[in-house]
Structure formats: C-alpha cells, structure tokens
Amino acid sequence: MTKPIRVRYAPSPTGLLHIGNARTALFNYLYARHHGGTFVIRIEDTDRKRHVEDGERSQLENLRWLGIDWDESPETHDNYRQSERLDVYQKVIDQLLAEGKAYKSYVTEEELAAERERQEAAGETPRYINEYLGMSDDEKAAYIAEREAAGIVPTVRLAVNEAGIYKWVDMVKGEITFEGSNIGGDWVIQKKDGYPTYNFAVVVDDHDMQISHVIRGDDHIANTPKQLMVYEAMGWEAPAFGHMTLIINSETGKKLSKRDTNTLQFIEDYRQKGYLPEAVFNFIALLGWNPGGEEEIFSREQLIELFDENRLSKSPAAFDQKKLDWMSNDYIKNADLETVFALCKPYLEEAGRLTDKAEKLVELYKPQMTSADEIVALTDLFFSDFPELGDAEKEVMAAETVPTVLTAFKANLEAMTDADFLPENISPQIKAVQKETGIKGKKLFMPIRIAVSGEMHGPELPNTIYLLGRDKSIAHIEQTLNRIS
Ligand code: GLU
Question: Start and end of every Aminoacyl-tRNA synthetase class I anticodon-binding domain (predicted)?
Fold first, then answer.
C-alpha cells in the first residue's frame, strides 16, 4: 500500500514571506493538489530570538493573497505550532535518553569555543568531541554532579552513529550520501532553554503529521542526514526528500540576496505595488520548474494539472525581474477592466485622481501597466502641467513639416462640435490632416502625439485626446507651437 500524499510548508515566523519561501509553499501546494494529497502548514516558532511579532499572520495572509490554500494549519488544528508541542518533543527526548540514544551534555559555551579554536589552529574540521570520552562511570558521575552543583543547565545531544551511512534518493538531485562521521559529532537536540532544535523538532513533527514528502530549499541538504539519524534512532520510516535548487539573481548570477536592490523579494512588496497575484503565482511556479515547451503563461488550474515533480530543475533558478514585469504586464493587459480598475483605485484615490474619468484612464493605460501603482505617474498628463519636451521629442519636432501638421489638426479640432467630440471621430480628423497637407505616416502621427501628450510613446492617441478634452488638447498644441516657433 502506498502512503497517502501529505506535504507541508513549515515557515519560521521570522519575517515577511520571501520569494524563496513562497516558492517552497507553492511547489508543495502544486504537488499536493496535483496528486490529490493534503497540504499542511506548520509554524516552526522555536527560535525565540528570531521571532517576529505578527510573522505568522503576515506569512499566511501573503500565501492567501497568492491564491494558495491549505487543508491543515494552526488555524484549524491544535498543536500545529512548534511552541505548542513542547511536551510532545519532551516525550521523545525522554525516550531517547532512557534508551541511551541521547545524553545530557554539560559542556559550556566557553569550553566549546576554546575547543573550536584549538581544532581550527590544528587544521582540523571543527566538531564536538564527546565530553565523557575516556571517563569511567564514577568519573562521569562526579563530573555531572560537579556541573549540576555549579548550576550548569545541560543540553541534550543525540549519540551519533559515526559508522552510519545516511543516504536518500532526492526527488530533485538524485542519490545523496553522507557519512555519520562527517556531520560534526553528537549534536544538540534540546537547547538549554528546553526548546528542541530545528533538526530534531522537524522530524518529530513530520512523523506525527505523517508527512510523506518533504520538499524544501537545497540550503537544507546538510540538515537531512541529521534528520535521518533521528528517524533511525526512533525506528520511524523517513519521508521522501526533494531539495529545490537555489534562486539566483539573473543579473549578478549570485544567490538572491536581500541586498539585491534591483529585485523585489517579498510577496508583500508585490502586493503593495498592485501586481496581480495570478501573475506572481505564475512567475514563481516557473522558478526552477517548467512544463516543457515555449508557453509561459499558465493559470493556477493549469499549473496544478501540469505539475510534475520530475521536471524540477537541477540547475539554479534565475530570478529575472524583467521577465516578471513582462508577465505581470501580460496579465494586466488581458485582465478585465473591472479587475484592473479595482487594483488601481487605491492609488488613484490617494493621489486625489479618482474622478469620473478614472475608469477610462485605467482602460487607456492598461496595455502599458506592470503594476497598478504606476497608474499615478501614467496619468500625470491629465492632472499636472504639460511637461517639457525631452531631447528625442525635440528632435522630432524640429522637422519643418511640424507646424503645418499641428496648425491643420488644431483647426480640425476647433471645427468639431461638442457632440461630435468622441474617440471614433478623432481618428478621421488626423486622416483629414493627411489629405489637407499631403504629410503622412510618422511625420503626421508623431508631432500630433507629442504636441498633445508631450511624449513619443504612449497610449492610444484618439482616446488620449478624447479624455484630455478638446480645450486641453488644443491648449497643449498651442503651447507646443509656441515652444517650437
Ligand atoms: N522552518 C524551516 C525553514 O523555514 C523549515 C525547513 C523545512 O522545510 O524542513 O527553513
């Protein structure tokens, strides 16, 4: 019988949801949904020093924003936070202590540091050397009594099987082997403050929650042999492991770092800038995975359908902000106006630009937008003074045909009645200038566009003129004629 598929995302609430963690959550989600399995969220909050107030809420909220849902979590299940499971860990620790598979360690931080220094100076790989080594039972008892009397609180260490071979067939990387003698000696499973260490707690939790597959970042590879040791000590069956390759910055070729200012790395950033969550979801799903073929735009449902863990990439995933922005623009361009307007509204409102024309303006700029916050700068033309021309625009406007085109177009606009002043009637007025002056193509359109909008590139021209209004369009043309005369 095969085990039911149960996967988990186990964030430590130490800060905002980073793109790397979001990818871990997303691949576990896709794996669970593709195979009809269960997706669990567990909060790993045993590192009290790095604990961030509100970290858990913000993680879950951002996952929800991305469109990820789950079947089990601390919201619906008791004891899905490690801090609530201390008695569970204690029982396992007591069992390991009773069976002699773990022991209390009284060595102090100072002694460990001194030993590490000695090993480094001698060119040895730093490791913990069993403090009881060479002691008789009596000596051992005396050592413990003396340390306890001195008020030294012990940690608990796992007695490592130095001769053991710890091996697994990684879902992403293939076979990986570690020797028991290479992991730095007996390691701490319970800290002085009574909290379990990550490598220990994670095993107890994954076992209790019957996790079948552990899919996480490859920064955890070196932790896996330690975790396998706990499975071995407890006689538990280990889950399958898959370690996803790291995410690199496509510009530097180095591991994505919080110092990379050319990339937005927290999901919260995308949310605040008004990206469509579907676009961010799609982008993250392709970080280290692809379904084959050229197509890159996939809905959540398609990704669930197509997901195949055998296609998880063995080489690093490049985070390319330009690709994300291209994808985001594609989603906004193709989304319905209602959705994009709703996305833009808060930014327009804050800028005092939520006028009766706001929805039309969003429609006008929708094809150009990457994120909704851009709507404010994009609509400057409609709310601010007419901008100075840039060098490229000035060059176009230096052509001798420009005044002829602008004067003719201005006259045509002036001749339109108010009732006629509609987008569909504005194009024919541009065509009319062609007929009147014999000037066509770029020499016709560019000067008109620049005279009205101040820029060579921009949204669709007749609609821009319509939304700007006749008076303002004419005023801009006059201003431009004065500037170039
Ligand atoms: N809390 C760990 C982390 O955030 C989870 C690692 C794991 O998935 O085992 O890195």
Answer: 341-480
Domain 267-335 has CATH 1.10.3720.10: no
Please tell me the distance from the alpha carbon of residue 374 to that of residue 461, in angstroms, as a whole number.
Answer: 19
Ligand 1 centroid distance, CA of 235 (Å): 23
How far is residue 277 from each of residues 9, 101, 342, measured CA to CA in Å?
A: 19, 48, 13
Q: Is 258 a catalytic residue?
A: yes
Do the Cβ atoms of 267 and 274 come closer than 8 Å?
A: no
Pocket-testing residue among 44, 197, 246, ligand 1, by greatest number of atoms within 8 A of Cβ: 44
Ligand 1: which residue has its CA nearest to atom 3? 11
pTM: 0.92
- Give the integer Cα–Cα distance in Å for 354 and 357: 8
Environment class of residue 282 by beta-carbon count within 10 Å: exposed (0-12), middle (13-18) or buried (19+)?
A: buried
Q: Is 104 annotated as a binding residue?
A: no
Report whether 405 contacts 437 (CB < 8 A): yes
* Alpha-carbon distances of 68 from 182, 335, 476, rounded to whole Å: 39, 20, 48
Q: Report helix angle 224-234 to 198-208, nearest 10.
A: 60
Euclidean distance between CA atoms 301 and 306, whole angstroms: 9
Which residues line ligand 1 at a C-beta cut-off of 6 Å? 10-12, 44, 202, 216, 220
What is the residue type of 126? P
Q: Distance from the CA of 11 to the center of ligand 1, in angstroms? A: 6
Mutate to test the pocket of ligand 1, among 42, 47, 198, 224 (most ligand atoms within 8 A of CB): 198
CA 225, distance to chain mean position in Å, is 28
8 A C-beta contact, residue 461 and residue 431:
no
End-to-end CA distance of the chain: 86
Tokens coding 204: 């107890």
| DSSP 8-state class, residue 439 | -
Secondary structure letter of residue 329 according to DSSP? H
SS3 472: helix
Give 67-103 pLDDT, tens digit per residue: 999 999 999 999 999 999 999 999 999 999 999 999 9
Q: Where are the domains of the chain?
A: 267-335, 339-484
Number of Cβ within 10 Å of residue 150's Cβ equals 9
List pLDDT tens digits, range 266-298. 999 999 999 999 999 999 999 999 999 999 999
Class of domain 339-484: mainly alpha
pLDDT at 262: 76
